[in-house]
Amino acid sequence: MSFLFLSRHKDTQNLRCSLNLPEGFEISVAAEGLKRVRFMAKAPDGRIFVTDMHDLSDNSLGSIYILDGFDPKTGKIARVVPYLRRLRNPNSVAFDTDSNGANWLYLALTDKLERYRFHLGESFSPSKPEVLATYPDYGLSYKYGGWHLTRTIAFSDGGDSRHLYISVGSSCNACEEKEEIRASLSEMDPDGKHARIVASGLRNAVGLRFVNSTLFATNMGADHLGDDAPDETMFALDHDLLHSGKRLNYGWPYCYFRNGEISSDPKFASSGKKVDCDQMPAPFATFAAHSSPLGLEYFDSSTQNAALQISFLVALHGSSKRRLRRGYRVVRIRQHSQPEDFITGFLENGVVHGRPCDILRVGADSFLLTDDYSGVIYYIHHQ
Alpha carbon 231 to chain centroid distance? Predict the structure, then answer.
């Protein structure tokens, strides 16, 4: 068994002190010394798994780690155990148990979707993966606004009728894709069969989370419409929409939202493929342009603290244009309300201290937060 022994970054303590939270909440470093740490999932044995994409390049140096021995009393993760290594941009991991009682770990890579047989308590994967689907693994030069390397997966909570959903980002900032799988959301059986695209026009839906039978997805808009457009969005796809048999269209690249109002992108005014923007689904919530919403978590009525109850927390990764001061925070979302700051301080005076990525609830009013800029996982809880 091997472990990743964590060494404290000299500025981690300063970063923690610079972060601003609502009154009564505390933040501590649960684990550090990671690299581009991304999305988390809880395994059937209760342990937490997290992806690490290594850096911003298109690489095959990514890993899956087990966050073993988390203690909510101390807010610490006892051991960070390497589970899988040498992966191509692992962004998202999920678990499922089939009708025969077998457990599976699902892993979304740039070029494919894999699953591994998972045995409770194991510290590494002894099995070879099954490839359930393949995806385009090329595009324009990789930088913000261009080719999207990440794939995100989520399971519906429908009992025996569970389905796997996977989002694939666009190959560009604003273009008419030649491959229909780009900028889409797909549905398939847990074994990869009966795959179909259920939604298109989602430029880069990195955050996926089921709440009851509704799939909530965060989505990034294009970068060519100025500093104040388009709105970044969060959509709610309920059970009836997902299973209507129709392919939903969320507008990109032809339509965009600004201040909650739908508009047509003049770049595609003469296109014969353009869609009717007036028919676009309304977003559940919107965020300031270039905020880059990623992971999200829901806190239901079992949450004890009023600051979190019946609300989402969304990690806003932040704009590459630091002068805009957009994102670099965690916000609270309640339906029919504007986003409210929950954690700020990741960007100060033009200096980036961290970039929030994913949120995982670990208690009634506590959660873990990944920071893929500082390689840190935080524990936030109410005193």
Answer: 18
| pLDDT for 159 | 56
End-to-end CA distance of the chain: 35
Instruction: At 74, list the tokens.
Output: 């101390």
What is the C-alpha separation between 106 and 153, in angstroms, rounded?
Answer: 8
Strand 248-249 relative to strand 196-200, pairing: parallel
The pLDDT value given to residue 231? 97
> How many C-alpha atoms does 37 have within 13 Å on its Cβ side?
28
Q: CB under 8 Å to 238, separation ≥6 — which residues?
A: 213, 214, 215
- The Cα-based distances of 376 to 125, 286, 329 in angstroms read 24, 27, 15
CA 224 to chain centre: 23
Residue in the block written with tokens 């939202």: 257
Label residue 186 left, alpha or beta by phi (over 0 means left) and psi (-120 to 50 means alpha).
beta
125, 118 in Cβ contact below 8 A? Answer: yes
pLDDT, tens only, 41-50: 999 999 999 9
What integer pLDDT is reported at residue 336 of this predicted model? 80
C-alpha 163: how far from chain center: 18
Distance CA 254, CA 271 (A): 9
Handedness of CA 106, 294, 333, 13 (dihedral sign): positive
Tokens of 355: 């970039």
Sheet of 340-343: strands edge to edge? 293-299, 311-316, 329-333, 340-343
pLDDT of residue 14: 57
Q: Which of 64-73, 135-144, 279-288 has the lowest mean pLDDT?
A: 135-144
Residue 141: pLDDT over 80: no
Please choose, from the candidates 215, 131, 217, 115, the residue with its C-alpha nearest in 3D space to the C-alpha of residue 169. 217
Confidence of residue 10 (pLDDT cuts 50, 70, 90): very low
User: What is d(CA 292, CA 324) in angstroms, rounded to the nearest whole number?
Assistant: 12
Q: Which amino acid is at 251?
A: G
The Cα–Cα gap between 42 and 177 comes to: 35
Query: Are 217 and 232 contacting, i.e. CB atoms less than 8 angstroms apart?
Result: no
Q: Coil, helix or strand for 239?
A: helix
Q: Is the pLDDT of residue 2 over 80?
A: no
Strand 62-71 and strand 76-87: the pairing is antiparallel
pLDDT digits (tens, 9 = 90+) for 271-287: 999 999 999 999 999 99
